[in-house]
């Protein structure tokens, strides 16, 4: 149980760093290049993926001792699934509400985090079978 609490703690730290990276990239691209938020969101996700994988591999799930490439591949699938949910939710919310794009993105990023933790812990960073 202690290890799970430790993992949740690191997951929150790494997730906040990746989410902040994602959010900052989107805001910078929208503000700097007048890019539509949904397009900028793809760039934000790709940059944040590197922050997220590195942090989770080396900190959150380091005790799982998963091999690098299988973990990276599985985490990419988890991240892409989360991003698909993120992008669909974000697109719908941009049209269905009057909240600003940056607030909506923050809310969507929070919502996808729980799914990402569960799939990462149970599948993406599991060690190879002996």
Please, could you describe this protein's structure?
There is one protein chain. This protein has 130 residues and is mainly α. The protein has one domain. 84% of the residues lie in helices and 0% in strands. The protein has 4 helices and no strands. Helix 1 packs antiparallel against helix 4, helix 2 packs antiparallel against helix 3 and helix 3 runs antiparallel to helix 4. The mean pLDDT is 91.
Order of helices and strands: HHHH
- The geometry reads as elongated
Stretches with pLDDT under 50, minimum 5 residues: none
* Overall tally of structural domains: 1
Taken as a percent bin, the fraction of beta residues is under 5%
Radius of gyration: 15 Å
Determine the fraction of residues in helical runs and give it as a percent range.
Answer: over 70%
Number of strands: 0
Q: CA-to-CA gap between the ends?
A: 24 Å
- Count of alpha and pi helical runs: 4
Estimate the mean pLDDT confidence: 91
Q: Main beta sheet, described?
A: none
Structural class: mainly alpha
């Amino acid at each position: 149980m202690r290890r799970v609490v430790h993992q949740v703690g690191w997951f929150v730290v790494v997730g906040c760093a990746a989410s902040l990276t994602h959010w900052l990239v989107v805001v910078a691209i929208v503000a700097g290049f007048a890019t539509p938020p949904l397009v900028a969101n793809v760039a934000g996700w790709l940059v944040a993926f590197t922050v997220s994988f590195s942090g989770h591999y080396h900190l959150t799930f380091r005790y799982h001792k998963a091999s690098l490439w299988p973990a990276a591949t599985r985490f990419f699938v988890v991240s892409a699934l989360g991003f698909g949910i993120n992008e669909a939710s974000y697109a719908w919310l941009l049209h269905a509400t009057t909240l600003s794009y940056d607030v909506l993105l923050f809310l969507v990023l929070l919502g996808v985090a729980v799914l990402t933790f569960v799939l990462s812990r149970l599948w993406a960073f599991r060690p190879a079978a002996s």
